[in-house]
Amino acid sequence: MQRVKDTPDTETLTAFACGLADLAAPISLAYFRTPLDVERKADLSPVTQADRAVEAAMRQRIAEAFPSHGIFGEEHGNANLDSAHVWVLDPIDGTKSFVTGMPTFGTLIAYLEEGVPTVGIISIPPTAECWVGRAGEATQFGDKACRSSGCRRLSDASVYTTSPDSFDAQGLAAFEKVTAGAALRRFGGDCYSYGLLASGHVDAVIEMNLQPYDFLALVPVVEGAGGVITDWQGRPLGLGSDGRVVAAATAALHAEILAILKQG
Q1: List of long-range contacts for 227-234, beta carbons under 8 Å, 24+ apart
Q2: CA–CA separation, 34 vs 46, rounded Å?
Q3: Cα distance between residue 100 and residue 33, in whole Å
Q4: Which residues pair with 116 in a beta bridge?
Q5: Which CATH number applies to 10-145: 3.30.540.10, 2.30.30.230, 3.30.110.70, 3.40.710.10?
Q6: Quick one: how far is CA 242 from the chain centroid?
Q7: Which pLDDT belongs to residue 178?
Q8: What was the pLDDT predicted at 42?
Q9: What pLDDT shows up at residue 175?
Q10: What is the DSSP letter of 166?
Q11: Which of 39, 81, 193, 214 could join 210 via S-S bond, C-beta 3.0 to 4.6 A?
Q12: Which residues of the chain have pLDDT under 70?
């Protein structure tokens, strides 16, 4: 692997991130719908040899190309987080989907510059779909730009969350209050829901108890498609966020949902 200068331009970083996604996909697919050794982490979430293999491959590629960059990963810990350049990796977002054969899991890759997500990748290996976000530019879905739906009112909106089990009692009550006024609500999807939001199929996603590797790659993707994504207080997402995330197709819809979440 050729070493790249430590402060490349965003175009180079985006191409490199896409290369990481291409590296990860065949590894995860080689394990998908095969017998797996499923372990439970301290938080009782599942982990498999596939998660570890995918992340290890991406970390090695980053270390070879950008040895001074930091890495925040789900399975193999963190390194050099005081760097101005940090990669945030979720090798298999949706491990519960992965181990049950559901083809909605993805690989999430984010690049942070001084703590701000500037490149984000949502890669869905089973469907070979990929959303690429780059700060200040239109999100790309495949070889075309994509756009969020433009939905401005909750009463017209489709609202997703991965699982009601991820909420605490207060958070679930707030989610129920939001979705009581929505056109429809659906469960499941993991990171796939945010890609669908960027492509205009889903209008909003509300979740809590996420980790930085679950949401930082989503930021450039959602924003580059015209959407808004923040925490439940309307603050930008970063490594120090509390894991409560709300994404919406438009600023107007986001503001309406946010007002209800704050009341909750």
Answers
A1: 227/148, 227/197, 227/198, 227/254, 228/254, 229/194, 230/254, 230/258, 232/174, 232/208, 232/258, 232/261, 232/262, 233/262, 234/258
A2: 16
A3: 8
A4: 113
A5: 3.30.540.10
A6: 15
A7: 98
A8: 67
A9: 97
A10: G
A11: 214
A12: 1-7, 41-44, 264
Instruction: Pick the closest to residue 15 from 26, 2, 27 (CA basis).
Output: 2
Q: Which two tokens stand for residue 156?
A: 């017209």
H/E run at residue 120: strand 116-124
Rounded Cα distance, 197 and 194, in Å: 5
Take residue 65 and report the two structure tokens written for it. 């190309």
Strands 184-187 and 158-161: parallel
In angstroms, the Cα distances linking 165 to 65, 169, 195, 215 are: 39, 10, 22, 18
Residue 183: both structure tokens together: 């056109």
> Within the chain, what is the greatest distance between any pair of CA atoms?
53
pLDDT reported for residue 76: 76
CATH 3.40.190.80 holds for 154-263: yes
Angle between helix axes 49-65 and 10-31 (nearest 10 degrees) is 150
**What are the residue ranges spanned by the domains of the chain?**
10-145, 154-263
Interatomic CA distance for residues 142 and 122, integer angstroms: 11
